[in-house]
Structure formats: structure tokens, C-alpha cells
Amino acid sequence: MTGSVPLLQLNDVCRYYTNSEVEVRALDKVSLSVDKGEFIAIMGQSGSGKSTLMNILGCLDKPTSGDYLINGQPVAELDADCLSALRLKTFGFVFQRYQLLSDYSAQENVAMPAIYSGMSKNERLNKANELLGRLGLAERGLHKPTELSGGQQQRVSVARALINGAEVILADEPTGALDSASGEQLLDLLKQLNQEGVTIILITHDPEVAEHADRLIQVKDGIILSDSKTFDAGLESQSESATAKITALPGIGTFESVIMAFTSLHANWFRTLLTLLGIIIGVASVVTMMAIGEGGKQDVLKRIETIGTNLVLIRPGGANIRRSGDNASLTLDDAEAIAELEGAAFTAPERSTRTTMRYGQYDFNGRIKGTNSDYKGAKDWEMSKGVFFSEADIENYAPVVVIGATVAEQLFPNGEEPVGKYVWMKSAFYQIIGVLQAKGASAGGHDMDDEVLIPITTGIMKAFGRDYLHSIVVKVESTDKVQATIERIKAKLIERHGKEDFMIHSTDSLVEAVTETQDTLTWLLASVAGISLFVGGIGVMNIMLVNVSERRREIGLRIATGAKPGDILKQFNIEAWVVCILGGVIGVAFGFIASLIIQLFEISVSFTLMPPVVAFITSLLVGLIFGYAPAHKAAKLNPIDALAED
């Protein structure tokens, strides 16, 4: 059978370490072959290199030089995923300190490597129970490691090594932490497994333990001193396994990663809560601040609406016309011409002056405005009492007046009915025929309810002494017609005046400017709140880094039992995502609650879909960005160093 290929073969393998610029030769030109079905004891004192040899055999470490072949295939040519596949399917590790996960039951510890082989949950748990029963632990499957004796924990470790059908079991000082009786039971178990065809490589410093093996290899100072090869019956079956090419296995499923993430987060619930708190505060702040900003914008826009929407304001004067006192470029005839244009729904001429209005012992000192019957429609103003003046009042120069709510309160403070009463102003009596519905303050803070309106014809004849206008207000039929109507007004006035001696403004531009300004303020508030979310992200990263540091042994164990670097990266990334998703959902809810509470203090808030969506997506990005560094660190951990930690 000289043509057969050994299961494992080392050719002149060296492993050097540099410690404080001193080169340490853990292995020095070691050559060794292991055939399938052997029971080998590698014996040596501490520091002899036997553990380094085991790590290289189990693909936990790489040689500095030399060749290592598994079934005739060079290990140096394999990538990290193929090496993980070897640790998953070919090797099983039994560690001196058991290396069981304290938060997992015995059953879950045994089943853990099967997660990375793609075995379903029911299948792996059933197989774990079967192995535990075979090793005499059928009644202890749901017990945590702290509830098991040392011998029981080591048998759980052996069951874990067998869950994926390992060809080779590498046992590193497996009896070192056991009493003599438990040690004998474990060695008998290893013998039984060897008789079933499993290759056993036992690392020990105890000659009595080594006597249980069929082949003894003594190591000292990184060199094989002796090799007593007494077994070669397995060579005949060796060539078949040598034909199987080593390939990478599929990565762990997302669902399994999520389950492991929740398990880990639940095991450290207080730390998880602190991590969540930073994300919750950040997301809630973004939602609340944007709701306040949006509420402020809606409040301002509502105030703009009170002065009339789709309005066009025409004033006398132009860019190249020097103003000197009143400018007489707009007249009532201009207003009548504009009223006939397409798109003009209401056209209201305006001229105003200041005066004192008196009723009995009360008076009001303010501005009176002359206009026509279209004014009510142009400004979207409803009547609280009485009526607005009509076209007949305009034509007949009627001495009538319509007043605002503020004027009514000042002239009739005792609640007397104002409609029908006569007031004195501008050396004449005027009858109050209506009171306007209260509108409050305008966008600029001006009280809109101090209006005193009279027919424009009456005003020109009795109050103003001039027949030209201060402005013309036009309400356009719809928003999409505003610009076209402005062009028609401009053309008509130029046709009438022969020059552009007027200025035209629209409330559309005001709404646009206010909206842009308020949007800027909203995003400014959101940015300030986003800083807290950013800080929360840094907290996620810091706590995840601490998490990685505290779970180094777990990570090392997962890598040793077959987890690929990508699996570890995925698991820790998902843990960060789970934290940020939970924090995002809870933060959005808290943001809405905080906004509702703020509303109780009469602060305007407005709920839209965008703030919670933006905050939630941002929390996901926080998890992606700030969770990657800890996850990458976990995936790059050296399993040997990690498993060596206390």
C-alpha cells in the first residue's frame, strides 16, 4: 500500500515566533505523517512545542515554513473559508479547559458547531441529544456548564467535537483538569471512538495518559525526539479520502445569525439596555425636533393663508423711478381693467390713511382702508356679524364701514352690539354694517384684526383727498395660473401707462421663501438632534468593542469549531443591527410620545412620514457603520490567543 496518501502529513515544518526581538523556535523542521484510524499521543513538557504542533495540525495556526498536507492537498493553498471547512468537518477539538459557552446548555454547546454546517435546528438538537445519551449525559442536556462536573463538561466537549462527524479528534491535555476516575473514563471513551474509525491525536505531558495510545511521539524544544509507529492498518482506506477536494462550505444563514444575536444580547441585557439607550435618545430627538420644525412651518404657512392665498400685489413705482411722496401711477381705472383679465378672480383696489375713530367715550387710532366689494373674496375673509359693503355702496359713495375684531373690542369693550352703530371719523359719521371674522396675527406678527374698511369711492371723496391708489390686490383663480396672470397684468399696465411704473409681488414667492427658510431650520434642528444619534453610534461601537473583548474565548471557540471569518463578521454586524433596529423602533415611538407631550404646552408639532423614516434609516446606518469595526475585529481574532485567555 505504498501508493496510499496519509491523512495528515508534515514536511520540514517550522514555526517561529518573535518575542521582544528574540526568535523563538516552537517547531523546528518537524516531519510527521498520520494515517487514518491511528491513536497517537504527542508527549512533551510545557514549552516543548506539542501544543503548537496540535494547532498546526488542526489548522488553527500556519507554519512559518515547510509543507502541511491533508489528504495530499497542501494547506498553504487553502483560503480562510476552506480552512474553516476543515475545522468544521475534518477536525474536532477537545480542550483542557472544556471551552464551553456558559450561557448555553450542554445540548446547545454540543449543537453549536452544527450551526455552521447548515444543519437545521431540530436535526442538530436531536443529534446533540443522541451524542449526549451515548456519552452518559442524556439527563443533563438542559443543564448549564456550571451545573456539571469536570468530567461531564469534558464529555460535553467530546460530544461537541463529534457533532459534525469529525475524522480527527485533537485532544489537548484532556485529562489535565480531571480527577483520576474521570480521566480514565475519558480515555476509555477516546479508545472507543478510535475503534470506530476516528483518528485520535492526544496531547499530553503525562506518561500514564500517553500509554493509552498506540503510537507515541515525543517532542522537545520543537523537535521530534522519537516516534514509535505501531499502527498502519488504516492505510488501505486512505486513498479514497485523498480524492475529496477541500472546498468552502456555505456561510451561516441570516436567521441563525439573528437568533444568536438575540441570545447574546439577552445574556448581557443590562449592557444591551445601555447601548439601546443611546440609539433611542438619538432617534427620539430626531423625530421630535423634525416634528417641531414641521409644526412651526405649518403654523407660519397657516398665518400666511390668513392674508389670502394665490395673491398678487401691485404697487406704484418701479426699479428706475425715483419716489417722492405719493406715487400716482395706479388708479381705479387700472383696477377695473385688471379685473377683466383672464385668471383674476377678485380685484381689490386699496388706499389707506391714518385717523381716529370714536364711539362715545371710546376711540381707536389706526389705519382706515378704502377698497371695494372684492376685498372680502381676495383676502378669504368671512364676516362675524353683519354684511360687507356692496357694489351699490361703492356707486353711491355710502358712508358705511366694516371693522375688524380688534377695533370692535376697543370701541365696544362692554360687549355692545357694534352693527348699526355710528362712529365719528374724518369729520363725518359712518355706520358700522359688519364685523370681520378674527384672524389673529400675520406671518410678520402684525395684528390683522385692526382693519377699518370703507368703500373706495367714499374714501377718495371724504377721507383721502386723492383719486389714486396705494396698491391693487388680485386673487388668482388657482396657483398654477399665478405666473400667467402676472404676465397679463404687467402687459395691461404697460399698455395703459406706456412704461413700467409699478411693481408686482405674489404670495407664492413669500410662501416659497418661508418654506425654504423653515425647512432649513427644521433640518438644522434635525442635525443637532442627529449629533446625539451619532454619539449613540459611537456608544454602540464602544460597547460592541467591549463585547468583542469580553467574548474573545467564545469567538475563538466558534472559529476553532468551524465558523468562517465571514460568519463571525455577520454575527457581530447583525448584533449591532439588532440593537440599532430595536433602538430605532423604540426611539420613533418615544419621539411621537415626546411630541404629543410637547403639544400640551401649546407648541406646534406636525407628524409626517419623513422624520421617523429618516431617523430609522439613520439608526440602521449607525449600526452598519459603527458595528463594522467591532465585527471586523472579531472576525480577525487569532483563535489560539483567544482560547488561551482566562
Describe the protein:
The protein contains 21 helices and 20 strands. It is rod-shaped, with a radius of gyration of 44 Å. With 646 residues, it is α/β, with parallel strands linked by helices. Strands 11, 12, 13, 14, 15, 16, 17, 18, 19 and 20 form a 10-stranded mixed β-sheet that branches. A 6-stranded mixed β-sheet has the order 6-7-8-3-9-10, with helices on both faces. The chain has a 4-stranded antiparallel β-sheet with strand order 2-1-4-5, covered by helices on one side. The chain is 47% helix and 21% strand.
Briefly say what this structure is.
The protein is α/β, with parallel strands linked by helices and 646 residues long.
Write the layout of secondary structure elements.
Blueprint: E1 8-19, E2 22-34, E3 39-43, H1 50-57, E4 65-70, E5 73-74, H2 80-89, E6 91-94, H3 106-115, H4 121-134, H5 150-162, E7 168-172, H6 180-195, E8 199-204, H7 207-210, E9 215-220, E10 223-228, H8 238-242, H9 254-267, H10 269-306, E11 311-316, H11 332-339, E12 344-359, E13 362-371, H12 375-378, E14 383-386, H13 391-395, E15 400-403, H14 405-411, E16 422-425, E17 428-436, E18 452-455, H15 456-464, E19 471-476, H16 482-497, E20 502-506, H17 507-550, H18 552-560, H19 565-599, H20 610-635, H21 639-644
Parallel strand pairs: 3-8, 3-9, 6-7, 7-8, 13-18, 15-17
Antiparallel strand pairs: 1-2, 1-4, 4-5, 9-10, 11-19, 11-20, 12-13, 12-19, 14-17, 15-18, 16-17
